[in-house]
Amino acid sequence: MEELAKKMGVPEKKYQKMMKKGMDSYMSLAFPADELRPLTCDGRTQRERGDLDAMLGNYSMTLIDALDSLIIFKRKAIFKVAVSHIQDSVHFNKDLEVSTFEVNIRILGGLLSGHQHAVKLLPKYKGGLLTKALDLGERLLRAFDTPTGMPRSRVNLHSGIPKGSGATVTIAEAGSFILEFGMLSVLSGDGKFYQTAKRSLRAFWSRRNALDLVGTTIDVNTGNFVDQQSTTGPGQDSFFEYLLKGYILFKDLELLDIFLSAYAAVEQHHSFEGFTYTVDMNKGLMMNTHLSPLACVWASLQVLIGDVSSGLRSVLYWYSLWKKHDALPEVYDTRSQSPTQARDSPLRPELIEAIFYLSLALPGDAAVFEMARSMADAIDEQSRVSCGFAAVADVTTKRLDNRMDSFFLSETLVYLYLAMAPSDELASALPWPLGSSVFTTEGHIFPLHGPGHEGNTGLEASLAAWDRTLPLLGAEAPIATCEALSPFERVAVQQRCRTKYLLTPSYQLQMVAETTRRCRPQEVSLLVWTEGLPPLRLHALASSLGRAVAALPLLHHRLLEEGKAAPRPDLGAGEETEQNSSCGVDSLAGLDSPERKKTPPSAWPQSLSLLRLDLEQSPGRMPSFSSALRLEPLRRLFATRFLQAADPLSACNDLLPEPGRTLQETYGGRLVIISRGGCLFVQKLLRAQQAGAAGIIMMNSETYDQRLQVMTCPNQERGGGAEVRVPAAMISWSDGQLLLQRLRQGPLAGTLFTQH
Questions:
Q1: Does residue 182 register a pLDDT over 90?
Q2: Which residues are catalytic?
Q3: Residue 186 in contact with residue 199, Cβ under 8 Å?
Q4: What are the residue boundaries of the PA domain, all occurrences included (predicted)?
Q5: Which residues make Cβ contacts (< 8 Å) with residue 388, sequence separation at least 6?
Q6: What is the pTM of this model?
C-alpha cells in the first residue's frame, strides 16, 4: 500500500493533516460547544436550524463523537484530556428535548467506544465514561415507554417523553439501538437495554407485509405505518446496517435471520443497476427516481455479506454521481440527471465507508485506492477553510455552509484514513485487531466480545437469557396477502418500456411477467437424526418457494471460534467460484461426525429459518446460496430444525396445538410434517406457515408413493402459491412413515439441502 500511495502521488500523511486541522479547529475555536461553525470560527451554542439541531445540548458532542477517532489518528494526549473533561464536566440531567436516535448514535455510542479504549490505554482510568453512558442510557430508555415499545423520536433528558410530542417515528429511529444498547448491556451486565432495543426492532418487523417490506414511518401508539414508502435511504438506512452488524457483534442469529429476509426483499424490489430506489411497500414498485447518499450504506452491506462484485458495482455507480460535482447532493434525480432542490452536501461518510470495506475485500486494488484518494483531495480542496472544514451548501455552485458536523471527524475522515493508510499503520491503529471490530452507524468502534475474543465470555449466554423474556417474533408474523396491483398496472405489464436509465413500474412488471413460467422441480435431500440412532438421508422434491440469499463469508469468523474452518486471509478470499461451490454428497460427512452426535438436540441452533430456495432461476444456474452449504457448521447454522407432525396430519383444518402449549410453541420454527390429500396443497402450506412453521415436509399419498411432484407454481397463471414464503418439499409415503415412526421415539431434527 505504501508503494501504491507513492505511485498515485498521494502525500502519505494527508489524511492525518486533515484530521489535525479539523480537531484542532474545534478544540481551539468551539470547545466545549457541541459543534464548530467553520465560517464564523466559533462554536454552535444555540439551536437555530430546527431538526438539524435536535441533538445539541452543550455537552461537547463533537469531542465525545470523535473519541475513538483520536486513538486511530494517534492523538492520545488529546484523548486523555477529553476523557478527563467528560468525566468531570459533562452532565445529562438537563431539561432539554433531544433527538433520541441522534443522541444514541453520537453520544451514547461515543461514550461506550471511548470507555473501551480508555480501559486499554489509560492505566489510571476508573470507568467514568461508562458511568456517564449508563446515566444517559437510563434517560433514553424513557422514550420507549409506548404501547408498542418503539421509541418516541424526542425525549426530554430530565423528564422523559415530552407532553404533546408526536407519535411518528422512522424505522431507522426505531431499529438502530441494538448496537449501542446491546453494548451497554454487555458492559454493565444489565439486560434491559438490549431487551428494549430488540423489542422495538421486533415491533415494526412483525408488521412487515408479504413482500418483507416496511414503510418508512410508523405510529408508536398504534403500530400502523404512516407512509407506504420503503427505502434503503433516509428513514431506514441504519436499520438494515444494525441487523447485520448486530449479528456480527452479538452473535444474535435472529438478527441475521431478519437481515437475510430484508436483504433478499431489497435485492428483489429496490435494486436496479447499481442503485436502490424507493418503492411502494405494498407493490414493490418504484415511486420516484430520487437518490440519497444515505442509501450508499447498501454497498457496504453487500460487501460485508460477501457479495463483493455487487458492492463494487454499487460503489462505482455512486462514485460516478460523486464525480459530477466532487460531492454527493442530499437528493439526486437520476431521471433529470441533476440534483433536486436539496443540493447541499454535509460531507457524509457512507460512500467512503463502502470504499473502506472494498479496500479490505480487494486489498491493494488501485481503482479502490484512487476513489478514496480523489475524494480526499476534493474535500481538502473545496471544503478546507481557515477555521476547519465547511460543508457544501450547493454542490452546483460550490457555495459553502457554516457547519462541520461531528460525523465529519468521527466517520468521514476515519474511513478515508482506513481506506488509504499503509498496512503497518492499520495494524497499530487500534488496541484490538481491525478485523475483530464493528463500526456503528456513527463510526464508533466496538470490539467483538464473547468466545474467542477479549471481553465478556458469557455474552452469548447473557443475550440468550435476556432474549427469553421477549415474546416470540413468530407470534406476530404477518399473514401473507396477494400482491396489490391496480387494473392500470396490470395493463402496464403488456407495455414495452425502452427507457435505458429509468426503472418504471411498467418495466418492473414486464420483467416479472417475462420470467420463466416453468414450474421447475428442485432435487433436495432431507437429513434427519435423533440421539442414539443413525441419521437418515431421504430424497425430496422442493417446490418453487422463497428468495435467494447470498453466502456469508463473514460467518467463517464464527466457525474459527469452534475450530471448524481454516482461516481466510481477507474478506475477498471468501468469494466462491462456480467450480468449488458445488456441494456433493461427500461434503455431508460432517453431519455424521462423532462430535455432532454428542451434541444434544436442545443445543442446536433454533433461531434461523430454512434457506430460501431460489427455484425460478434459469435452468442450470447454481443457486446462489449453495456455496454456503460446503461447511457443516454453516449448514447447521442455517437449516437445522426440529420436526413436528401436524394435527390434523392432513392440515385440511386449522392446526391444533399440543396440550398445554400454544400454536406457536407447538409449530413455531419447526419442520412440520403434513400428509397429502383432502384439500389443496396451498391450503395446507398456508396453514402451517401461519402457525409459524419454518418449513414443510409433505408426505406423499400411499397411491403415488415415489412419484413426487411440485406443490406450488407461483409464476404460473393465477400465481398458485405465491403467498407461501417458507420452503416446502415432498417425500415419499414410505419415507414419511419412517419419519413418523422415528418421531414417536423421541425428538427428531432435520436439515434440507440441495444436491448440487
A1: yes
A2: 102, 237, 330, 350
A3: no
A4: 666-739
A5: 21, 22, 25, 26, 29, 36, 38, 404
A6: 0.70
